[in-house]
Design brief:
Blueprint (H helix, E strand, L loop, with lengths): L12 H20 L6 H18 L1 E5 L15 E5 L5 H35 L1 E6 L8 E8 L2 E11 L7 E10 L5 H7 L11 H4 L3 E6 L6 H30 L2
Parallel strand pairs: 4-7
Antiparallel strand pairs: 1-2, 3-7, 4-5, 5-6
Helix pairs in contact: 1-3, 2-3
Length: about 250
Amino acid sequence: MDTNWIFQEPIDFEHKQYVLLDFLQKMDKQLQNLKLYPNFQQISLHLASISLITEKGQYLTLNRTLKDPDDEILISDLIANNLPLFTKDDILEIYKVCVFSNDRIKDFFNQAKALWDVANDSISIEPIQNVKNIEPKQGLFYITDNGDNHLYEFIIKPIKKGVIETKCIIKKICSCNEDEFEKKILEIKRPLIKNIKNPDTYKNLILFKVHHTNQFPFKETLLPIAKRKVMNYMIQSKLIKNKDLTKKY
């Protein structure tokens, strides 16, 4: 559902109720199945956009295409657009739709946030190799899910030029036994990490193991949260290290 759905033709309160109901039914099905992404972003974006319409007569769009289902939406991604000119009757209909929609979307936002809290608490990461090697902002992590070990490489980089906000980009290396990790790394095509096939590189990368409770969908919840935890660990560890170095002088 586009963020301009409220003032797309026809601008009719009853019609918009059906449009919203269809959207929320889809969101409800996804959340009932514990699938957080991309549903949480969609709910959050629509809620923020509706608030902006009622407060400033503007609505939100994104200035880039989200490449992954769990792409984080940052403040720098948002564009505030002025509403088109409408008749007085249309404005009243739009306002009614916003008031009606805000409470209902907020309920789903709270549900999604509660699900995120539970999932976030049940998923943890453990650095098990080259623990102090955080400087390159790159490394490996693996998740065991339904008996399969999924190995990923990751790099952390600015989300785009000119901003300090970063994102964690991942690429799957393999699904295999742990004793095959090294072999699969040597076979990877178009890796994210430069020279990863060189033993001096991959043997010195930090490696994380992801722990979880086996209750959440892999692609829509488990992997996105694990990826964020890896990124937060790398960034926070570097900040702590830099702070400790500063104290010595």
